[in-house]
Amino acid sequence: MQRLFNGVRGAVAFMTLLPLGGVLNAASLVVLPLTGLIVGGAVALGFWIGDRSGSSLVGAVLALFVDAAITRGLHYDAVADTADGLAGFVGRQRRIAIMDEPTVGAFAVVSVVVVVLARVSAWSSLGFPVFLVGFFVLGRALMALSMLCFPLAKESSLTKIFANERRRWLIWVLVLEAVAIGVATVAFSSLWVLIPIFVGLLGGSGILGFAIHRLGGITGDVVGAVGLVGESTMLMVAAILRIHG
Q: Which residues span the membrane (predicted)?
C-alpha cells in the first residue's frame, strides 16, 4: 500500500508543480494519464477566469499561462528540444547531443510558436467545454504507453525509470484507461469528438515514429513532445470541426 501511495504521489509531482514527493514506479505509470485531470481542470479554471473579461482570447492566453505554469513548462521544452534534435542532416549521436544542449535553434522556436498558436486559437474558438479535459488525459496516456512499448535512445534518459517497470498488464491497464476516458469524452460532447481524438493520437504517434526512426528509440523529450503535440492536434481539429460539447 505504501508503494502504491508513493507511486501516486510521485506521478503527480512528476507531471505537475505540486510538491508531493513520492517515487516513480509502476503505480506512477498507471496514474500518469490521470494527472491530465488535474492539469486540464486547472487550465479550464484559468480560461474561465480570463473569459470573465468578456474576451475568449484573454481566457485562452490565461489558460496557456496556467498550462505552462502547472506543468513547469516541461512539455513545451520537450517540443523545442525534440524539434531541434530531429531536424537537420546530422547523425544519431549528434541529434541526441543537440537535444541535451541548453540552447535552442530555429526549429525549436518555430515548433513551440506553432503549438502555442494552435492551443490559443483552439481555446479562443471553442471556449473550454468539459470534454477538452479528456484530451489532456489521452495525451498523457499516449506518453505513458510510449515509455512502456518502445526502446530507449540513450541510457541516461529519464524514461529509463519507467522502462524498468515494463509489464504487460500495465499496457492493458493504460489502454483501458484511454478507452474509458475516450468514452467519457464522447459522453460530454458527441461522436464527432472521435475524429480529433483519432487525428491527435495519430499525430502524436507520427512524432514518436519519426523519433524512433532518427534516434533509434525514445527520450524524455520525445515523450513530452508526443503528448503535447497529440493534445494540441486534438484541440485544433476539434476547433476546425466546431465541436462545442
A: 7-24, 30-49, 102-120, 126-148, 169-188, 194-215, 222-243
